[in-house]
Amino acid sequence: MKTKSKPEIKSDILSWWLLIVVPLLGMVVVNFSPNLRFISDKFSNQSPPNLDANYRYNFSESLRNNPNQKEAVQQEIAFYQQRLAVDSRSGLNRAALAGSYLKMGRATGEGGWFLLAEQAAQRSIADLPFDNKGALLVLARIAEARHDFTTALRFAKLVGFKNEDAIALSVTSNLAMGKVTEANAAAEALVNRIPNLGSLTLRALVRESQGRDAEVLQDYQQAMAAEEPGDVGGSARARSLLGRFYARRGQFVQAKALFLEALRLVPRYPLALIYLADLETRQGDYREAEANYNKVSAYSGGVPTMFDRLVDRGMAKVKDLQGDAIEFRRLRDKAEAGLRQEQLSGARGFGHRRDLASLLLEKGRSQDVAEALALMQQEVKIRRDAVTLDIYAWALSSAGEWQKADRVMAEIVRSGIRDAGMFYRAGAIARTLGKDTESRAYFQKSKEIDPNFDDRSRQALGLGSYEF
Predict the structure, then answer these.
(1) Taking a C-beta distance cutoff of 8 angstroms, is the pair 204, 220 a contact?
(2) Fewer CB within 10 Å, N side or C side of the chain?
(3) How many CA atoms lie within 13 A of 272 on its CB side?
């Protein structure tokens, strides 16, 4: 028997290796991609580890095959458009289409969808002038988005306050107008009628405006216990708002976990991304903040949206805190140009006088302060929630009208709201007026509400720094 040489033995081993190992590797490669996807899904489908168990979304399996928010609404729009192609005079179908356009506007922030919704609702009423609650509610929501709260409430009244959507609109419009008692009564009525995710979230917002923190958390916990798998957008919104609440109390870990949970439900959800970026700015995580602001812009695909002004101002703050004066001014000027363009739309636009005023106050020149004060004097005639009053007080104090500013801050304090920035501003105004004891009390209250309310936080809100 011929003995094999060493090269022949090596060749045989290589042949066996090719025959056995390569097919096995092929099997691994074929199965690796699906397995990797499964592993990735498993990890991405988990709640953040720091999230309170009460706030976890309990329908994770339902997220796997769900279309994204835009796709889901687009399917609705296509469905009603097909129905109207068969019967173009159907007022009910056109009202439903108007509602879908409104949903898309809220999801994307694109103003064009709101205008389409308004036009569809008006045509629906022309075709069906009686008992057309769907179209009236769309017109009410568009009026509210334009800060025309009186008109919004008038449409809601036409629908009738036995309708749950009309009651919900009464909550939000009255809250924006500073009519907290009316908003609270409507919220209680809504929860008593239907204690679900939406109604409990609304009541939590009313209670937050009154400083009833323990009850706010109670409402959010009940809201999330009552949620159902169909309303992923509502679930993401509730967690974003609760995350904002925690951030305002200096509880950053829980706030971030809630924003991440919202983004797990609705990836690239603009509200959660903006709140998360704001939080990261406060924490000094500028690179992460910038990345999240950029995700908001990427989500819109370059189409102008109502989120742009928030992104540009947020990015400008990041650049300012980083000491990049050139980029800071470019982004601030871009935000100002966008806000001014919005003002030119008049009654049909979604003018944000309050945002333009606060930007002008940040600039601080005498002509900017005068314009900001004029804007806020208009704004408080239609909107008197705590945020609006706070910016009005800022404008008054910047213009040297300290006594008036002090009275406005007193109105905010009486509302019961717990906001570190507002109490800090009240303290600064009181100190300027020589009310040292009152000033120290306000500063101390600010620190109690948010122990992490530091110089960076104050800079982001246009506040000075005082020892207390």
Answers:
(1) yes
(2) N
(3) 26
Q: Do 170 and 153 form a contact (C-beta atoms < 8 A)?
A: yes
Structure tokens, 98 = 């108007």
Q: What tokens does 446 get?
A: 């600010």
pLDDT tens, N- to C-terminus, the chain (468 residues): 445 454 454 444 444 444 444 444 344 333 444 343 333 334 457 899 999 999 999 988 878 766 677 888 999 999 999 999 999 999 999 999 999 999 999 888 888 999 999 999 999 999 999 999 999 999 999 999 999 999 999 999 999 999 999 999 999 999 999 999 999 999 999 999 999 999 999 999 999 999 999 999 999 999 999 999 888 999 999 999 999 999 999 999 999 999 999 999 999 899 999 999 999 999 999 999 999 999 998 877 777 888 888 999 999 999 999 999 999 999 999 999 989 987 776 555 666 889 999 999 999 999 999 999 999 999 999 999 999 999 999 999 999 999 999 999 999 999 999 999 999 999 999 999 999 999 999 999 999 999 999 887 787 666 754 444
Report in angstroms the alpha-carbon separations of 85 from 10, 92, 159, 160, 348. Answer: 74, 14, 28, 31, 28
Please give the single-letter amino acid code of residue 235.
S
57 close to 263: Cβ distance less than 8 angstroms: no
Structure-token pair, residue 107: 């999801």
- Residue 338's contacts (CB-CB under 8 Å, 6 or more residues apart) are 304, 308, 309, 312
| Beta carbons within 8 Å of 261's beta carbon, 6+ residues apart | 47, 48, 51, 55, 56, 57, 239
Determine how many CB atoms are found less than 10 A away from the CB of residue 447. 15
* 66-145 and 360-468 in the same fold: yes
| CB neighbour list of residue 425: distance below 8 Å, 6 or more residues apart | 390, 393, 394, 397, 409, 461, 463
CATH topology classification for 360-468: 1.25.40
- Secondary structure of 239-282 in the HEC alphabet? HHHHHHHHHHCCCHHHHHHHHHHHHHHCCCCHHHHHHHHHHHHH
Look at residues 402, 357, 382, 389 and name the one whose alpha carbon lies nearest to residue 149: 382
Residue 102 · residue 69 · CB < 8 Å: no
Residue 135 near residue 91, CB atoms below 8 Å: yes
Q: Fill in the DSSP letter of residue 116.
A: H
Residue written as token pair 């009005």:
392
d(CA 117, CA 346): 18
Quick one: CATH architecture of 66-145? Alpha Horseshoe (1.25)
Give residue limits of the domains in the chain. Answer: 66-145, 307-351, 360-468
DSSP 8-state assignment for residue 42: H
